[in-house]
Amino acid sequence: MVDVGEKAISRRVARAEATVRMAATTLSLIVDGEVPKGDVVGVARLAGVMAGKKTSELIPLCHPLPLDAVAVDIEADRELPGLRIVAEARVDGRTGVEMEALTAVSVAALTVYDMCKAVDRGMEISCVRLLEKLGGRSGHWRREAGD
Question: Cβ(101)–Cβ(112) under 8 Å?
Answer without folding.
Answer: no
